[in-house]
Specification:
The protein has 396 residues and is mainly beta. 5% of the residues lie in helices and 46% in strands. The chain is rod-shaped.
C-alpha cells in the first residue's frame, strides 16, 4: 500500500519598510493661560517666559514669550540681491486652531500670532556676525538692538507689526561675497493669543495644538545653506484652565413661598370675585463669570410644570419662572425676564453672562393662573403644598 505524504511548505515572508535616513524631529513648547473669575474678565498668561528675557528684558516687554531649544548651522554670504544667502528668517502669519474641553469635548476657537523673534547666533569672528545689524537688508521686520550673551554670541530682537514676514541682515561692515558660518542655538518667540471672552468657556481645562514647520519653504524658513537643523517641526501645546466664580444668594424665607392674589384676598372675601392669579416673587442675588444652567425638580409633576397638592390628592399646576440680572443672557442676546424654568437637567436653560455679574438682582416667580385657581376656590379651607427644587448648575 502506498502512502500519500503531503509535506507542508512554510513560507517566510519578510516585509521590509522603507525607513527614512533622517527621522522627523519636533521641538515642543507650551503656551498656557488661566482664568479665575473677576470683573476684569481677562485671561492671565502663565507661560514660562523666553530664556532671552533674563539678558534682554526689552524683548519681553508688553508681550508674552517662550523659548524653543532648536539649533542649526548656516553659511551666510553677503549678497547683492539674494536675501536667503544672508542671515535670514521668516515668521508665519496668524494660525487658527481649536481648544477642546477635556471633559465635555466642547470646542472654542483660538488664534496664535507670533510678533517677534530672537535667536542666539554665534560666529568665530565677532565682527563678522551677520546678526549684529542695525537695519535689515530685506524683508518686513523691525530690527531692534539685541544683546551679547558671550563674546561671540549675540541674541537678536526682530519685531513684526503685521506677520507673516521675512527678514535678512548682514554684518555692519562687510564686502560682497564675504562668508561667515554661524551657529544658532535657541529660538525665542513673542506671541499673542486671541480667545473668546472667558464667560463663553465652561469651567475646566481646555487643550489644543498648533504645528509649524522648519526648513526651506516651511513656516520658519532660515534661508539657504542651512545644515544640522535639529528639528523639522515646532509643536505648540495650548493649555487654558478656566475656573469660574459662581454664587447665588436667596432672600429671607425663600424656602417657604406663600402664594396670594395681588393686593390680598379682600376681593374674593368681600365680593366673591376670582383673583386673576395667586403668586409669590422671591428675590435672589447672583455672582457669575461663566455659563451656567437652570432647571427645576418637582415633588409633584404637572406636565412641564410643578404642582401643589391637597389632602384629597388633587393637583394644581404652578408656573415657575425666573428673572435674571441684566448681564445674564440666553443664546448670547436674549434677556431673562420671567422665563419659564424647565423641568429636568436635559431641558435646562443655558445661560451666560455678557459681562461679569457681581451681586446682580433677580427673582423667582411662582404663580397659579386664574383658570387653575378656580378649582382651588371650590375647596375652601383646603391646604395645597408641594416642593419645588431650583437647580443652578455652574459645572464647577
Amino acid at each position: 500500500m502506498k502512502r500519500l505524504v503531503i509535506r507542508g511548505l512554510t513560507l517566510l515572508i519578510v516585509l521590509l519598510s522603507l525607513v527614512p535616513l533622517s527621522l522627523a524631529q519636533a521641538v515642543e513648547a507650551t503656551v498656557s493661560l488661566e482664568y479665575r473669575g473677576g470683573e476684569a474678565a481677562q485671561f492671565a498668561h502663565t507661560t514660562v517666559p523666553a530664556a532671552a528675557c533674563t539678558l534682554m528684558p526689552a524683548f519681553c516687554r508688553n508681550v508674552t514669550t517662550f523659548s524653543a531649544p532648536m539649533n542649526y548651522t548656516k553659511l551666510t554670504i553677503v549678497s547683492r540681491n539674494v536675501p536667503r544667502d544672508e542671515f535670514y528668517g521668516t515668521l508665519p502669519g496668524p494660525r487658527q486652531a481649536y481648544l477642546v474641553h477635556e471633559q465635555s469635548g466642547e470646542q472654542q476657537p483660538v488664534q496664535l500670532t507670533f510678533t517677534r523673534i530672537g535667536q542666539r547666533v554665534s560666529s568665530p569672528d565677532r565682527d563678522k556676525n551677520p546678526a549684529v545689524a542695525a537695519t535689515r537688508v530685506a524683508g518686513t521686520c523691525n530690527i531692534q538692538p539685541g544683546v551679547w550673551s558671550t563674546s561671540n554670541e549675540y541674541i537678536t530682537r526682530w519685531y513684526y507689526t503685521q506677520p507673516p514676514g521675512t527678514c535678512a541682515t548682514r554684518p555692519r561692515y562687510s564686502t560682497y561675497g564675504q562668508e561667515e558660518i554661524v551657529d544658532v542655538s535657541e529660538l525665542n518667540l513673542g506671541y499673542t493669543v486671541s480667545l473668546p471672552p472667558p464667560y463663553r468657556f465652561k469651567s475646566g481645562r481646555y487643550t489644543g495644538t498648533v504645528r509649524y514647520s522648519f526648513g526651506v519653504g516651511g513656516d520658519f524658513d532660515f534661508g539657504d545653506r542651512v545644515s544640522s537643523l535639529s528639528d523639522n517641526e515646532l509643536v505648540v501645546n495650548l493649555v487654558v484652565d478656566v475656573q469660574h466664580g459662581f454664587r447665588v444668594e436667596f432672600g429671607a424665607n425663600f424656602e417657604h413661598a406663600v402664594l396670594e392674589p395681588p393686593g390680598g384676598w379682600s376681593s374674593w372675601l368681600d365680593g366673591g370675585r376670582v383673583p386673576p392669579r395667586i403668586a409669590s416673587d422671591q428675590s435672589l442675588r447672583l455672582w457669575s463669570s461663566g455659563p451656567f444652567r437652570v432647571y427645576k425638580l418637582c415633588e409633584f409633576d404637572a406636565g412641564d410644570r410643578c404642582a401643589i397638592r391637597n389632602r384629597r390628592g388633587e393637583d394644581v399646576p404652578v408656573e415657575v419662572r425666573v428673572t435674571m440680572p441684566w448681564g445674564i443672557r440666553q443664546g448670547g442676546w436674549q434677556g431673562i425676564n420671567r422665563v419659564p424654568v424647565p423641568t429636568g437637567s436635559s431641558a435646562a436653560l443655558e445661560l451666560e453672562p455678557i459681562v461679569y455679574t457681581s451681586n446682580g438682582p433677580g427673582q423667582v416667580h411662582f404663580e397659579v393662573v386664574e383658570a387653575d385657581l378656580r378649582p382651588m376656590l371650590e375647596r375652601a379651607g383646603e391646604r395645597y403644598s408641594g416642593k419645588v427644587t431650583l437647580m443652578f448648575d455652574a459645572e464647577l
